[in-house]
Amino acid sequence: MTQPRPPIVVILGHVDHGKTSLLDALRKTNIATREAGGITQSTRAFQLQSPVTVTFIDTPGHAAFSAMRTRGGQIADIAILVVSAVDGVMPQTKESITTIKEAGIPMIVAINKMDLPGASADTIKAQLTENEVLVEGYGGDVPTVPISAKTGSGLPELLEMISLVSSLQSLVSDPSGPLECVILESHLDARRGPIATGIVKNGTLKTGQELFLDKPVGKAKALSVDPAPPSTPVEILGLTSVVPVGSLLTSTIQHQDPTSNFKRPPSNHTILNVILKADVLGSLEAITFSLPAEVNLVSSSTGEVLESDVLSAASTNSQIIAFNVKVPASSAKLADVDKVKIHTFNIIYELLDALDKLVHPQSLETIVGEAQIIAEFKIDALRVAGCKCTSGEISKSNTIKIGDKQARIKSLKMGKTEVEKVKTGQEFGAVFAPPVDFKIGENIIAVITNG
């Protein structure tokens, strides 16, 4: 028999606009200060019991976690779009708006950081209107609530608005019906084995229950909430493997098409082989989709860096990227012996920046000589710059710069003799390739590139 169930509310918004701080204030914990770089990097869920029961899902704001935000939107009944009253509508704000519209769920805009100087709710409402979010008072019916996650101002009104919006929907499920539990996060714990975090959409999850995807995946040996009725976020222990994020755990076998069966398109320009280790499947998915095209992903998995990972890296000439996972001393020692590089990160954008630098190393230029153009000649229709070296040396192997133009030296002559280089005080004629539109009086800078 169907019964009313609590609403599932997803929190969306741009990086560092205060999503986690909002949840922090609602449940009066201190997650935000523990976040690496202050940015949520996995999907978290919790249930607020008072004054009304609401299940909240926090989603990452960083661009790399697009799939995780989309997944959160698909599970939820209501979306709260958090927008900073100071920073306004930003790139992930726009993406979140698209996610909410595609999910077809009601939206509430929480205009956060109203305690800061320069905060303006009216400015945010105008920006939202420009992005096709028609809020109340601006020609639409999308409710807005000014809040401050820091001071707690506006939070009672936000909860009241959630209750009002959910009451206009028919949110029902059957606690005694077939189990449906959507997996939000999944990882391998070194001590407790595979662990999954999910939200029950239908039925009731109980300890001892057999669980299935398209095959049996174990038994619920322990639950963080037991029993877990509809709309309840729950941590599940006892699975036989790390189940795909986005998959649907059921009480019977059925066909699965989880969103996290992700594959990265192959590249024909491999520069770096990488073995990727991450804390949870959501992080693994986000990093995989954000890798530079020049990176060849040899393997990826959740859990700490194992000695087998180091051996695999050594045999495939790979580097190990470890995100939010430990590197045991035994693995570090083996990596040192086998000369395998292990890079550890706990902030997604630092990891991606570092990978970009590995495949696109910054070139360092050193000035080795300078000259001034003192004359111009034409020989066989070629423009020849008559120059005098004013410092250092200039050779045919150098890159030369004239203003904002760059070229190589095709011909370098002293008199009628072709030479390889000239020194300070010497006069010479030069032909540039590609041809450069130079002028008498301009300076030439010769550089060599390192790295």
Automatic annotation (TrEMBL):
Keyword GTP-binding: yes
Pfam families from the UniProt entry: EF-G_D2, GTP_EFTU, IF-2
Domain of life according to the entry: Bacteria
Keywords from the UniProt entry: GTP-binding, Initiation factor, Nucleotide-binding, Protein biosynthesis
GO molecular function: GTP binding; GTPase activity; translation initiation factor activity
Keyword Protein biosynthesis: yes
Domain (Tr-type G) ranges: 4-172
Any Gene Ontology CC annotation: cytoplasm
InterPro entries: EF-G-like_DII, P-loop_NTPase, Small_GTP-bd, T_Tr_GTP-bd_dom, TIF_IF2, TIF_IF2_dom3, TIF_IF2_dom3_sf, Transl_B-barrel_sf
Similarity comment text for this entry: Belongs to the TRAFAC class translation factor GTPase superfamily. Classic translation factor GTPase family. IF-2 subfamily.
Protein name in UniProt: Translation initiation factor IF-2
Organism: Candidatus Gottesmanbacteria bacterium GW2011_GWA1_48_13
